[in-house]
Backbone:
């Protein structure tokens, strides 16, 4: 026979169902409100960066793909610096907190409950992401808009960091048997956990290849100049 304590252990929407989250308070914001906020603000960053990057400067206009890459870094700056920055600062109070960004994390945790239990790997990974790749992403936007010579170095560093974090994120959960989400759920597993994170594997991979090519071409040009002098 279950006692009163056992009967109240599962008063939350997270997996595994036997998680103990004694401070949990249910969101009073709907999923649609939270997702509209996230994608609207991300869209504003993308649109503003797209418009700015299309202006002709002293070095000419950026190409379409380069502008899209700059927009990616602007959105990353927002998500890493603000959304993940919030988690890195307030992870220990999020389950019971009703601030909007805490509710956003409680909603996302339906796809990965490691965020609502302040899992050690998640806290460390998100803290590094917030305080390194957030500022670096905005720096990359500036570097590309002003044609700085180190812009592809930044692109390579940020993309490698993002890729490494995303691979560890998926791999650690794989080793846990995908225990922190409702496996196969169309929204919580496939959209929250898989889709919203696999972007940080696919896009950084493409940007790493791009930076490799750009930096290799620059090095080849320097080597050719040196050989001509000799």
Residues:
């Amino acid at each position: 026979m279950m006692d009163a304590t056992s009967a109240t252990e599962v008063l939350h929407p997270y997996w595994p169902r036997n998680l103990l989250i004694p401070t949990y308070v249910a969101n009073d914001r709907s999923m649609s409100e939270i997702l509209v906020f996230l994608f609207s603000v991300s869209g504003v960053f993308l649109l503003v960066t797209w418009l700015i990057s299309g202006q002709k400067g002293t070095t000419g206009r950026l190409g379409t793909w380069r502008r899209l890459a700059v927009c990616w870094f602007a959105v990353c700056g927002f998500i890493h610096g603000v959304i993940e920055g919030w988690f890195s600062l307030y992870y220990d109070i999020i389950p019971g907190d009703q601030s909007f960004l805490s509710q956003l994390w409680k909603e996302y945790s339906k796809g990965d409950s490691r965020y609502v239990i302040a899992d050690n790997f998640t806290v460390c990974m998100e803290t590094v992401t917030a305080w390194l790749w957030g500022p670096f992403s905005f720096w990359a936007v500036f570097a590309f808009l002003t044609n700085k010579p180190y812009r592809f170095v930044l692109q390579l560093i940020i993309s490698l960091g993002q890729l490494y974090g995303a691979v560890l994120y998926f791999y650690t959960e794989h080793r846990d048997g995908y225990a922190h989400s409702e496996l196969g759920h169309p929204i919580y597993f496939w959209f929250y956990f898989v889709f919203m994170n696999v972007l940080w594997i696919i896009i950084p991979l493409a940007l790493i290849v791009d930076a490799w090519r750009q930096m290799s071409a620059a090095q080849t040009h320097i080597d050719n100049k040196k050989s001509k002098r000799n």
In short: The first helix runs from residue 4 to 7. The radius of gyration is 21 Å. Residues 31-219 form one domain.
